[in-house]
């Protein structure tokens, strides 16, 4: 079911990108938590996933959202590489 995880990460990535471009940071914690859960799900299907979880200890919400965006993009690339 890695395809299901991929679809969820793809949607999350799109939402993050839209919010980042519009400078909306109020959902950042929810996005970070969701990506971390999706990372765990991806690792159940492929243990060699190297993308690391998002830390909520960033300096700002903007930095956390940027981290979610970068890591979700990286995870999509890792899943795609199969």
UniProtKB/TrEMBL annotation:
Name of the molecule in the record: Uncharacterized protein
């Amino acid at each position: 079911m890695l395809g299901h995880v991929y679809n969820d990460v793809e949607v999350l990535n799109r939402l993050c990108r839209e919010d980042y471009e519009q400078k909306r940071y109020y959902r950042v914690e929810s996005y970070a938590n969701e990506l971390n859960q999706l990372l765990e799900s991806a690792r159940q299907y492929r243990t060699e996933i190297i993308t690391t979880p998002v830390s909520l200890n960033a300096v700002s919400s903007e930095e956390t959202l940027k981290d979610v965006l970068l890591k979700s993009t990286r995870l999509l690339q890792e899943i795609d590489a199969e």
